[in-house]
Amino acid sequence: MPDPTLARDLLTAESLTSGYNGVAAVTDVNLTVAAGEVLSVLGPNGAGKTTTLLALAGLLPAMSGRTTAMGEPVDYKRPYRMARRGMRFVPDDRGLFSVMTVREHLRLSRRRPDRAREEFVLDRFPALAEVQSRIVGLLSGGEQQMLAIAVALLAEPRVLMVDEMSLGLAPMVVEQMLPTIRDLARDEGIAVVLVEQHVELALAVSDRAIVLNHGRMVLEGDAKDLLADRDRLETAYFGGESL
Ligand SMILES: Nc1ncnc2c1ncn2[C@@H]1O[C@H](COP(=O)(O)OP(=O)(O)OP(=O)(O)O)[C@@H](O)[C@H]1O
Ligand SMILES: [Mg+2]
């Protein structure tokens, strides 16, 4: 019998320590993300947010701790297997090809020809539907980010991790995109992890959040509670004690 707890928690980390060349960049990170839930990973530059995501995606080995995705251990040796299981990671540089058009990205990214899925995704990002014949290099930052997320969504992911979605975007664009991701998580039961510098906007669409600082978790809690306690959040951000 599959463990129902594991089935609900699509992503877990228990005492995750990971880093580069044998030096830990994050230490003892604990998190869980259930189907339909949005978790924000917050913290200042260099806190270890990207490292945490890379380790959860199987793109960087854990030095110690336990990580699971879709109920099975994260496979660092074969990250493509993680993708096959339904893991999608949108990197902070968006990972698009600047001389390819929007349509070409969408066509190449479909797991199988699925016109209905493409229409479903484009319905969520109407601005993208209007620029399908344009090459990525001529898109606005917001359109590029929509495309990166649309490409990930075509695969019907079970876990979606988006690193610095709002990098270089106008706050108005961020305000439009975050609720779209929130709705997609709920409607499709996707476990979403967001790394965001727009802390309040991120918390407004998240269920829970963790704050990292100097590679350690310094705060975690329900997004509502964190939004209501600005002082605690600011202390955590600007050098709080680890949990
Ligand atoms: N490829 C790498 N090799 C060595 N050290 C790295 C590498 N990438 C990141 N680091 C270090 O690991 C630590 C955590 O970096 P990480 O990129 O995870 O932080 P971050 O919270 O994502 O920061 P930012 O907000 O700037 O994106 C930093 O000290 C960083 O210098
Ligand atoms: Mg980063």
Topology at a glance:
Layout: H1 4-8, E1 9-20, E2 23-34, E3 38-42, H2 49-57, E4 62-69, E5 72-73, H3 79-85, E6 87-90, H4 102-109, H5 115-124, H6 126-129, H7 141-154, E7 159-163, H8 171-188, E8 191-195, H9 199-205, E9 208-213, E10 216-222, H10 223-228, H11 230-237
Parallel strand pairs: 3-8, 3-9, 6-7, 7-8
Antiparallel strand pairs: 1-2, 1-4, 4-5, 9-10
The structure holds adenosine-5'-triphosphate (ATP) and magnesium ion.
Structure summarized in a few sentences:
With 243 residues, the chain is of the alpha/beta class.
Report on the structure:
The model has no long low-confidence stretch (mean pLDDT 92). The chain is 40% helix and 27% strand. The chain has two domains: 4-86 and 158-237, Rossmann fold, CATH 3.40.50.300; 95-156, no CATH class. It is of the alpha/beta class and 243 residues long. The strands form two sheets. Strands 6-7-8-3-9-10 form a six-stranded mixed β-sheet, with helices on both faces. Strands 2-1-4-5 form a four-stranded antiparallel β-sheet. The chain is built from eleven helices and ten strands. The longest helix has 18 residues, at 171-188. Helix 4 (102-109) packs parallel to helix 7. The radius of gyration is 17 Å and the shape is globular. Magnesium ion binds at residues 49-50, 92, 163.
